[in-house]
Design brief:
The chain is of the alpha/beta class. The chain contains eleven helices and 14 strands. The protein has a seven-stranded mixed β-sheet.
């Protein structure tokens, strides 16, 4: 949690959007909050008043997981909150299940198939989502994930068996992804309602994350790249086992530093806030502190990702949280390894560990 959260400004205080209802947070921009069955128990979605090809309606940004409760909330919104107007397009920031899970269902108009509209998404997120939805594994579970985390020191047999049994984790939350899409690229301008929104891609959290920034409206829809209370998860997973996502994420943060200091930030988790430059500085300081802890640990002797987890995460973790904790510990180790500060070696036990030149 962000110990310096008090430095941020929350213009709506503790008031939250209610499931099944929309709350206006800027002219023509509405907040939808949906429940999630995880420790991170909600996701913020956004509805923007729009006009496409002369038709009045709405653009939906992000969707929620495939879940009957969330579907019922969406149906209530369709029936009671949209002034009788249709959804004109669905835009997804990235391929993680809580964002893309219901994209296909929403594009087809929900239970009543009220409309048929296009999914707007970056190429990297679209392809990754299609692959994961069609497969029998995921970053969060399956045999490949279990092997990956075992190689990095997760040796508890019960935890590994739980990972293997999660092989349909992604497909259960994202049963389908639309067969067609409209491609978004960094720097594209999308006209939504009365404002122009610039596509800002980011890396490290997902393959090609798309945030939307309107200078005129003074609003940043930040997705998962900038969150107020928690730090964005940045993980090394089995699909890219030598990746350096933390370096990509820290580089991507620079894309937000030239935005308006008073911009209203609409994050996917937590509350809308102002104080973007402050939050970026906090996130950089957070990772600097974690990297310092990793350096100190590795100076004492070779460390696996599993060894680093209790240093970075000082609480009990369930298997869902453990996958992200392991991935994030490895991301910090990999940044230092790619920078030449640490060496990597596989031990006789098959576990990969990292240390300084004198400790490996």
């Amino acid at each position: 949690m962000n110990a310096l959260e008090h430095q941020l400004d929350y213009p709506f205080g503790d008031t939250l959007a209610e499931p099944g209802r929309i709350r206006e947070v800027a002219p023509g921009v509405y907040w939808v909050r949906m429940p999630l069955p995880f420790a991170l128990d909600h996701i913020n979605l956004w509805l923007l008043r729009d006009e496409v090809d002369g038709r009045q309606g709405w653009t939906v940004i992000d969707c929620g997981i495939a879940d009957d409760v969330i579907k019922r909330h969406w149906e209530t919104i369709f029936d009671t909150q949209l002034d009788g107007l249709p959804v004109l397009r669905v835009l997804v920031t990235h391929c993680h299940p809580d964002h893309v899970g219901l994209a296909d269902w929403l594009c087809k108009g929900g239970v009543g198939e009220r409309w048929s509209v296009r999914l707007w998404i970056t190429l990297g997120e679209y392809l990754f989502g299609r692959v994961m939805s069609a497969g029998d594994g995921s970053n969060a579970g399956g045999e490949a994930a279990a092997r990956h985390f075992a190689r990095h020191g997760l040796t508890d047999a019960d935890s590994l068996e739980k990972l293997r049994n999660r092989r349909h984790y992604y497909a259960n939350l994202v049963p389908s992804v639309p067969s067609q899409f409209r491609r978004l690229r960094d720097g594209d301008t999308v006209s939504i309602g009365a404002h122009q929104w610039r596509v800002v891609t980011g890396y490290g959290h997902s393959p090609e994350h798309c945030a939307l920034y309107s200078e005129g409206a003074g609003v940043l829809i930040s997705g998962d790249m900038v969150l107020p209370r928690i730090s964005t998860n940045v993980s090394v997973f089995d699909i890219e086992p030598e990746g350096n996502p933390l370096a990509l994420y820290l580089e991507s943060l620079g894309r937000y530093e030239s935005m308006r200091a008073d911009a209203l930030v609409l994050p996917s988790h937590g509350r809308p806030f102002r104080g973007l430059p402050i939050r970026i500085a906090q996130l950089r300081a957070h990772h600097d502190a974690r990297l310092a802890e990793v350096r100190q640990a590795c100076a004492r002797g070779p460390q696996s990702a599993a060894d680093i987890v209790p240093i970075m995460f000082r609480r009990q973790l369930d298997i869902h949280q453990m996958t992200f904790a392991m991935g994030e510990a490895l991301a910090h180790l990999h940044l230092l390894w790619h920078a030449g500060e640490l060496e990597r070696i596989e031990g006789h036990d098959g576990v990969v560990r990292f240390g300084t030149g004198g400790s490996v």
